[in-house]
Amino acid sequence: MTGPVGVGFVGVGVISDTYLENLNSFPDVRVVILGDLDTERAKAQAEKHGVGEWGTTDDVLAHPDVDVVVNLTIPAVHVEVSSRAIAAGKHVWTEKPLGLDREGTAQLLRDADAAGLRIGSAPDTVLGPGFQTAKRAIQSGVIGEPMFASTTFQTVGPDLWHPSPAFLFAQGAGPLLDMGPYYFTGLVSLFGPVSRVAALGRKKLEERVIRSGPNAGTAFPVEVPTSLQVLTAFDGGQQAASLLSFDSALERHGVFEVHGTEGSLVIPDPNQFEGRIAYVKARTSIADGKWGEQEWIEVEQEGVLTGRGLGLLDMVRAIAAERPHIASGELGYHVLDIMLSAQESVASGEFVTVESTVAPVPAVPVDFDPFAATL
Question: Per the database record, which ranges form the GFO/IDH/MocA-like oxidoreductase domain (predicted)?
């Protein structure tokens, strides 16, 4: 690839705005065409963001200037649309999750590999300067050897604010598959692959009611557990405990803590590209029973701040440099396998072995500049 890489979108829902704003600011990519089932919506987004062409999915896949397809469709058709893009000879960047089942998702990766094409998968927040600064701090030894982590996402639920929330409570969603990718991608990026998973899950309600928007008062079924506690054991010996809930009166999310032999470090919300990084050192003694306040040591964030689309940019630069990209399809598949294993553990009440694995996740160089022209 030389010069700006041509990009086409399939799906232009709400999340497309942030992708378009960022990708249009990166010199190494050029958004060529937007496609959607609703072509009028595609046209409106194209006009809003200065994209020259719009049309259907077929128009995007057939476009000769499109090298990479951005798949922003609903999760239930992620694999179908990505597979069509691979068949059309395009690289793929897809929103999370990569797929909803192991068989079809693994076949997608095999097809891409056979065609010599790349697949990248959200979330790409782990490429942001917040997470990467924290990762470098851990690798430098500020907390000693990492032992375990704890993460938390708890909210009253998206039915409180979303105008059409039923899909978030259907099979393939819930807090596990909707929000879990951020937390488990972060954990795997730090600790490597997961070997075993155990989980407990429950529902607060069998039916929920939309509480805002034009459909307020409409009831819909809850198909999946809405609160889960997940234990993960990593190949490297580390452990993590993760709470994911759509049932909590107490709103608390973005909690990501890593505890080591010499200290503990807080990492920014894995759904964001920046945030606070700080650590405390382990106490060496307690004099006269006086605990006092622990001293937080702040870590200055390093790197250029941007947003969604960063993973796609890294992927096209990696293709040109013939190196692995960071938010890879293999990483997305392993995270999916972790979450499906957690679902199976909820059903069986037993630990579940995670069959897939992934290579160590590369770090982002501190001098990575999204706004430089490198191709």
Answer: 131-266
Report how far residue 52's alpha carbon sits from residue 360's, in angstroms, rounded to the nearest whole number: 39
Q: What share of the chain is helix, strand, coil (3-state, %, to 5)?
A: 35, 25, 45
Do residue 65 and residue 191 come from a single domain?
no
CA 147 – CA 55 distance, rounded (Å): 51
pLDDT digits (tens, 9 = 90+) for 342-368: 999 999 999 999 999 999 999 999 999
Q: Tokens representing 163?
A: 């105008």
| Residues in the chain, overall count | 375
* Residue 50 in tokens: 């200065």
Does the pLDDT of residue 307 top 80, yes or no? yes
- The residue segments making up the domain with residue 39 are 5-121
- What average pLDDT does the segment 318-338 reach? 97
Dist CA 120 CA 96 (whole Å): 10
The yes-or-no verdict on residue 329 having pLDDT over 90 is yes
Of 250, 36, 273, nearest to 132 by C-alpha is 273
3-state SS, residue 308? coil
Where helices occur in 123-242 by DSSP H, the ranges are 129-139, 174-191
Paired tokens of 13: 């829902």
Helix (H, G, I), strand (E, B) or coil at 201: strand
* CA distances for 325 relative to 68, 119, 213, 312, angstroms: 14, 9, 40, 9
* Residue written as token pair 């890593």: 258
Query: Which of 298, 322, 341 is a domain's end point?
Result: 298
Asked if residue 52 is part of any domain, the answer here is yes
Report phi then psi at 199, rounded to 5. Answer: -150, 150
Please list, in sequence order, all residues whose beta carbon lies within 8 angstroms of the beta carbon of residue 90, skipping any fewer than 6 positions away: 8, 61, 66, 67, 68, 69, 117
